[in-house]
UniProtKB/TrEMBL annotation:
GO terms for biological process: DNA integration. This is Integrase catalytic domain-containing protein. Pfam families: HTH_21, rve_3. One of its GO terms (molecular function) is nucleic acid binding.
Length: 307
């Protein structure tokens, strides 16, 4: 029991006339000055700060105090992490601790290729959910493993191999083709026409071992953030509403949400900082086989229209 809590209980006993203040202090083992202490009213600056901390904490319930501090500092508040942590504790806004997961035992298989620059390794996978009315939602997500940027979240009732190719063309057209793309052995990712198109586009595939999701940890971590910060907080009634809400969250994830592994930079901010770093693939003018026009020609070869 904290001294403040002891003081409240002792004050209650004295107010009810059950004992004197001296006896209450002796029984609860608190100093008499602590018993007589009157808390000071916070000044205007502290009030505004507490309101800002509460507002951001309620908006981002799964974010800890370092990320809330980052947002406050971007808004111009001259405040440190410890003060924000103390205020969140006083307001009872702490994020509950997660239950420790049972760790896999044995020798780790490791990753075949680790991304060391933007566009080096992309990863993609599916995540499932349902609307309030019970309608099925299937989402295709594409993430850059180096910058943690989410290039795509496509939401539909069902997604087949043809739809995967239709959608992956969109981020390739915007950001260029990656050198590798990592996935599990789902039927949509091992379909022959998709593999042939990726081979023609110069994109090498990395398939993880069956039953080994830890080998694709970047996309699994992203899915846990998507589920905690969006899917479990929103009531999605229709497919159209789900597409709008999830796309808004994707933009916030890329441009607003600080990322701990990026030293509290946002994925877009980190990508801009590392933009000048030499990339493993030359620009489009020096690699005509990967120009958008060439990729588009090979894309249309399979009689698929970009969606």
């Amino acid at each position: 029991m904290s001294p403040g809590h002891k003081r409240q209980v002792a004050l209650g006993f004295v107010t009810q006339g059950r004992c004197s203040g001296r006896q209450a202090c002796r029984y609860f083992k608190i100093h008499r000055s602590t018993f007589r202490y009157q808390a000071k009213e916070p000044d205007a600056w502290t009030k505004h700060l507490r309101a800002a901390v509460k507002r951001y904490s309620l908006k981002h319930r799964r974010w800890g105090y370092p990320k809330i501090t980052k947002l406050l500092q971007e808004d111009g508040w001259k405040v440190g992490k410890r003060m924000v942590q103390r205020i969140r504790r006083e307001l009872d806004l702490r994020v509950p601790k997660r239950k420790p997961k049972r760790r896999r035992q044995g020798l780790s298989t490791g990753l075949p290729t680790k991304a060391d620059h933007r566009g080096h390794v992309w990863t993609w996978d599916f995540i499932h959910d349902r609307t309030v009315r019970g309608g099925r939602l299937k989402m295709l997500t594409v993430v850059d493993e180096h910058t943690r940027e989410c290039h795509l979240i496509h939401v539909a009732r069902r997604i087949q191999a043809k739809d995967v190719l239709n959608q992956v063309f969109r981020p390739i057209e915007l950001h260029g083709a990656p050198e590798y793309i990592r996935s599990d052995n789902g039927s949509e990712f091992i379909e022959q026409s998709l593999q042939q198109w990726l081979r023609c586009a110069g994109i090498r595939t990395l398939y993880i071992d069956p039953g080994s999701p830890w080998q694709n940890g970047f996309i699994e971590s992203f899915h846990s953030r998507l589920r905690e910060e969006c899917l479990e907080r929103e009531q999605l009634w229709t497919l159209s509403e789900a597409r709008v809400v999830i796309e808004d969250w994707r933009i916030e994830y890329n441009h607003v949400r600080p990322h701990r592994s990026l030293k509290l930079e946002t994925p877009k901010g980190f990508a801009m900082v590392t933009q000048g770093v030499l990339c493993g693939r030359p620009p489009a003018s020096l690699r005509p086989r990967l120009d958008n026009a060439t990729i588009l020609d090979r894309y249309l070869t399979y009689n698929l229209v970009p969606g």
